[in-house]
Amino acid sequence: MKKIAEVQQTHPLFRQVYEFMTNRMERGEWSAHEKLPSIRLLAEELKVHRLTVFKAYKQLKEDGKVYVKDKSGYYVSPGSSLSLDFEENAVVPSYLLSNPLSEIQRVPAKYQFSQALIDPNLLPNLYLSDYVKKVFDLYPKVMGTYSTVQGDEELRETLSRHFREHHRLQLSPEELLITSGAQQAINLIAKILLGPMDTVLVERPTYSVAMDIFRREGARLVPVDITPEGYDLEKVEALMAKHKPRMFYMNPTHHNPTGYTVPARQRKLLVELAERYRCLLVEDDPFRDMYFGEPPPTPFFAYDTEGWVIYISSFSKYVAPGLRICAVACRFPFMERLITAKSLADNGTPLINQKIFLHYYTSPRLQQHLGKLRIALQVHKEIMEEELAAAGWKWTAPQGGLNLWVKLPDQIPVPELFRLCTEQSIAFVPGEIFDPLGELKSWIRLSYSFANEGQLREGMQRLTALARTL
Amino acid sequence: MKKIAEVQQTHPLFRQVYEFMTNRMERGEWSAHEKLPSIRLLAEELKVHRLTVFKAYKQLKEDGKVYVKDKSGYYVSPGSSLSLDFEENAVVPSYLLSNPLSEIQRVPAKYQFSQALIDPNLLPNLYLSDYVKKVFDLYPKVMGTYSTVQGDEELRETLSRHFREHHRLQLSPEELLITSGAQQAINLIAKILLGPMDTVLVERPTYSVAMDIFRREGARLVPVDITPEGYDLEKVEALMAKHKPRMFYMNPTHHNPTGYTVPARQRKLLVELAERYRCLLVEDDPFRDMYFGEPPPTPFFAYDTEGWVIYISSFSKYVAPGLRICAVACRFPFMERLITAKSLADNGTPLINQKIFLHYYTSPRLQQHLGKLRIALQVHKEIMEEELAAAGWKWTAPQGGLNLWVKLPDQIPVPELFRLCTEQSIAFVPGEIFDPLGELKSWIRLSYSFANEGQLREGMQRLTALARTL
After folding, report:
1. What ipTM does this complex have?
2. What DSSP designation does A38 have?
3. Which chain B positions have a beta carbon within 8 Å of A341's beta carbon?
């Protein structure tokens, strides 16, 4: 027994010393053929036992990262040390991974089909401005007050009532956390759930930034195809049995980028699988209210009795996206951990944003706005679809959401089309970016929510004309 | 050469497999005496070579984490597997570390001396509300618009001008990133700079949440004493030479919790040390404008020509803290990495908060407000000091900031006083929390900024009376 106790104390240290040394080499602080500090000096510096440093050097030598010369000491092997200039290197430390979607969207464009955002002109701006003024009269000190870390209690109470009445979700205010946008929610969830080599199931295709976040935590992504019919549940079960994933990140309602919706009958079954295989379902649900015909099926969260679904509801997207208000619903013990992660991340979402959102959200005006917005989005979608049909391209008409997921004819090279379009100030997102396998090379995502009707018509005609030149 | 290339590919996998397995055990997914999957099965599941899994098992066995029984396979050693109920265990995975300061501050109190926040009544609330209404007239679509990830360009331009004119900092708008509060800034900086076993110099005492953040990244903290005279630069140099720290996290102006200010003559010297030892200085500067006599010395950032200072300026604290607006100044290449980290964290701070801050910040009213606020804070401080003097307690009168750092007589046990005070609705923070060494057991932090004058007088009398009973 003594041996076990001893080793458990020293072992994490061994790993830490090892990582410390490889980090220094990877950062170029210890460069190729540089003599490394002696075991004695390094043990002193790191305040660990010399044996631990000796073991780390031994392992580094076995791994070819350091070499021994004339018994005079350890030296850095060439190739172990990377320059700090990370653009020159293929090997980039995971914490520096870039966000390619954000980079594409950063480029301004006249015909903006790369942003899955709602045209600000479709929002009730004047009404919102008037409304905000009332909020300031109601809470004159809101600019001087911090929110609690978990989020404003009045907002959480209102939302828990809303979820109960509209989506049949049984939720107490204690089971809700307010975050600054859905992306922060995904980030916090990844932080508390994922470690190196953990498996995450992701839809294929899926929201690319979520993949960036999971990969940064060292997780491995295993794709689950999403089709207009939903998932292949037998395959999902086989993947859960084989990979024991920590979580399945899903966007099952008016899915981004495809617009598909997972049917009701699959929802209950998948929650049962999640319970059986102890795999958390992370249900990202930002497009629920953007439907064109019937409202979509109830969230997965409604079928969950054991706490295996975390629900991300970022409805501020179509109310007032600039506020960046999102609600995460989950059960104990995950909620406690999420609150701690949130407290370290930013100590709570600004109260003013929460109060503005709360009061607009409970106003009768919201339902009117939503009705009008659905019609406007459907008109947008149909303009885009007319031009796609004229070009003979293929897509599945979505029941909601902000995007069309389009298959181009095989002879059109997407990178070339992308380059031509960028020159002509037309923006879209190559489908490859949404694919965990990096394939799907003849697909593109076209968002119809941001451009106005004239820009949609004109931009799509220009885009399809450019494609014909290829 | 072939060997090196091969090993470099396999080695990170070995570590990842090892961590994957220990994580599963630590989380209790593989429990004590449970039979582990065969090498073949696990290699298939993780899609790695069997030899890599074999090596990981071998290492786990050496470390006493697993044992072999009757040649029938590997089993989890007792003690390697932890229950998911983390409150019962001393060993908590680093990503679940709690934030004790936030927990203390969560408890409501009538005499609130634990919050280093400004009493909302001291802020120009009515004026701010009127002002916000103007901002909405100016930017009617602000609620529907996202900010760029780096932050609103108009705000960054204004702030770079402000820094130039007021603090002699040469800064382009491209060298500024807007974050949601200083805590998010510290978090993003830690994420891009720190890895396991990296050393961080921190002041002793220091802002406890920063320590929580650094520890969560696996860093080791090395304390640098801060006194009314600043740092002992010889000691700092010795620590830099010995530990090669990645960064020194400092709050050198009206320091939290002590209120001390590092003198001008030390600032230039320390920047030189930072350059020489390649140790980034992370200068957290939220209390700069809260001075009582002369304005404080120029920031460290002004002395930096080589890019070794990152400057965190969270001045919204005394303008409109609820907005959570903070600016981080740093040079290439750190800025590029910070922007990527910010894009994954929350995709940008809400534009509305930035625009409100911008317009209030540039209004002539701000300087008037600041002048009044300084006087009010000084009055607050003096009330607290009178009661401390009456009790015979010791402190160094600060030149600014929001806190007094108080040494209690040795016979008063702080945990006992804390318990009594909590019962009587008096809140303060035990000094131990701010100490990287967890000592300083007879010190406490008293914030004079949040309670009003009556509460300060009465609360301090009650607090010192309670101490006399001990």
Report:
1. 0.80
2. P
3. 95
